[in-house]
């Protein structure tokens, strides 16, 4: 019995000394270019990467094969178009949705807010400030650290800014609407070990952070003589009340995030099913030379960009494009299982738009992709089509 106790204590001591402490060396800084590979539909074999707590564990991704790649470039916040709207910002990234600003200290990297497309996907440009700021990284990071953040956004719009078709199912007229986005995030650093990635000679010593994020989207409508009223209380929740009812609901995102010292990228991110039984997506640090077709986040202001409006759409959708060099561009729209429903080429230049009718589209979620004549992808995003 004495020998068993000594062996157990020895194992506990060895495990304790093996746990890394992640310092601020993993904080991104202006000028950093972070490259990641993405697996969109991993097979069931990767479910074994979902382990218990503590450790040490070995998470082996050496046989993973990427579907595409992404690049994030961090810039000095002062270079942003909306820098004046985010006083105290230190770094920023830009992308197809706009600019995101961060405050960085010796112990925290916090998202302050963003300027660009509205989170309700109405196709409107907004300036949204998180209150409080959202902590993205902290240091030092140790095993069993816990944190939580709750952030609310309230964004009022006049109905004249939105397509009439969104309100076609409602039995009353509206003056304006107010989108409410509430995000509750909890994070616990609950495991440690090593992650093995393709292209790297040595595994990474990591801590694993489990993030549970719940985003609730609600809509208040302003009725004549009544004032602001929660739409869900009238139509009974999401999915009703015409196209606008499709915005209401709660989205749950559960991820396992792996961090290592002196590695600015997240070493790996596993997106899990809501019951935590399946790996539904993988992103990982790549050592490969990434092709020019990668989606890019952190481009300089004025970079080419394409967005859909309205989104969700009902009868038609307009693709607004910005800063496109004169060229032939291919627009593809396909279902989430890859079935093409639209494939046409257009001669485009500058900042304008093109519109397509959705008469033949069924209700559902699609992906749309814009690429130039050389095959370089300008953007790939989600398009939601709703029908009354």
Short account of what is shown:
The protein has 388 residues and is mostly beta strands. The chain has helices spanning 2-18, 232-235, and strands at residues 33-39, 54-60, 68-73, 75-76, 91-95, 98-104, 108-117, 125-138, 146-158, 176-196, 204-223, 227-230, 249-259, 268-272, 279-285, 296-297, 305-309, 316-335, 340-357, 364-371, 377-385.
What are its keywords?
Immunoglobulin-like, 2 domains, single chain, 388 residues
Which outline best applies?
Answer: globular
| Euclidean distance between termini CA atoms | 71 Å
Q: Supply Rg.
A: 23 Å
Task: Report the helical percentage.
Answer: under 10%
Oligomer: single chain
Structural class designation: mainly beta
**Beta-strand content:** over 45%
Number of helices: 2
Order of helices and strands: HEEEEEEEEEEEEHEEEEEEEEE
Total number of domains: 2
Blueprint of the fold:
Elements: H1 2-18, E1 33-39, E2 54-60, E3 68-73, E4 75-76, E5 91-95, E6 98-104, E7 108-117, E8 125-138, E9 146-158, E10 176-196, E11 204-223, E12 227-230, H2 232-235, E13 249-259, E14 268-272, E15 279-285, E16 296-297, E17 305-309, E18 316-335, E19 340-357, E20 364-371, E21 377-385
Provide structural commentary:
The protein is globular and about 60 Å long. Helix content is 5%, strand content 52%. It has two domains: 267 residues, no CATH class; 82 residues, Macroglobulin (MG2) domain (Immunoglobulin-like), CATH 2.60.40. Strands 1, 2, 3, 9, 10, 11, 12, 13, 14, 15 and 16 form an eleven-stranded mixed β-sheet that branches. It has 388 residues and is mainly beta. The N terminus is likely disordered. A hairpin with a 7-residue loop joins strand 7 and strand 8.
């Amino acid at each position: 019995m004495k020998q068993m106790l000594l062996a157990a204590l020895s194992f506990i001591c060895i495990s304790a000394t093996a746990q890394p402490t992640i310092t601020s060396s993993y904080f991104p800084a202006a000028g950093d270019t972070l490259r990641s590979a993405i697996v969109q539909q991993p097979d069931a074999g990767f479910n074994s990467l979902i382990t218990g707590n503590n450790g040490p564990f070995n998470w082996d991704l050496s046989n993973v094969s990427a579907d595409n790649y992404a690049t994030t470039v961090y810039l000095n916040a002062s270079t942003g178009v909306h820098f004046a709207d985010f006083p105290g910002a230190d770094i920023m990234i830009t992308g197809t949705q706009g600019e995101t600003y961060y405050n960085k200290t010796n112990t925290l990297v916090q998202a302050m807010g963003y300027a660009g497309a509205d989170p309700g996907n109405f196709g409107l440009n907004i300036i949204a400030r998180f209150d409080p700021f959202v902590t993205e990284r902290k240091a030092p990071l140790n095993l069993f650290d816990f944190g939580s953040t709750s952030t609310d956004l309230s964004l009022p719009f006049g109905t004249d800014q939105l397509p009439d078709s969104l309100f076609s199912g409602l039995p009353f007229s509206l003056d304006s609407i107010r989108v409410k986005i509430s995000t509750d995030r909890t994070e616990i650093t609950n495991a440690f070990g090593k992650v093995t990635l393709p292209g790297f000679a040595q595994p990474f010593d990591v801590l694993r952070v489990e993030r549970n994020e719940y985003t609730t989207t609600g809509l208040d409508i302003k009725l004549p003589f009544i004032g602001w009223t929660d739409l869900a209380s009238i139509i009974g929740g999401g999915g009703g009340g015409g196209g606008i009812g499709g915005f209401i609901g709660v989205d749950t995102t559960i991820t396992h995030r792996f961090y290592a010292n002196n590695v600015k990228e997240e070493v790996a991110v596993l997106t899990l099913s809501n019951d935590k039984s399946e790996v539904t997506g993988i992103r990982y640090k790549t050592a490969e030379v990434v092709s020019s077709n990668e989606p890019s986040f952190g481009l300089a202001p004025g970079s080419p960009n394409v967005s859909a409006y309205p989104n969700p759409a009902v009868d038609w959708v307009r693709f607004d494009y910005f800063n496109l060099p004169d060229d032939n561009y291919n627009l593809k729209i396909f279902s989430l299982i890859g079935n093409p429903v639209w494939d046409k080429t257009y001669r485009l230049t500058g900042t304008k738009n093109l519109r397509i009718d959705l008469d033949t589209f069924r209700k559902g979620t699609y992906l749309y992709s814009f690429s130039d004549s050389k095959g370089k992808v300008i953007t790939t995003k989600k398009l939601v089509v709703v029908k009354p």
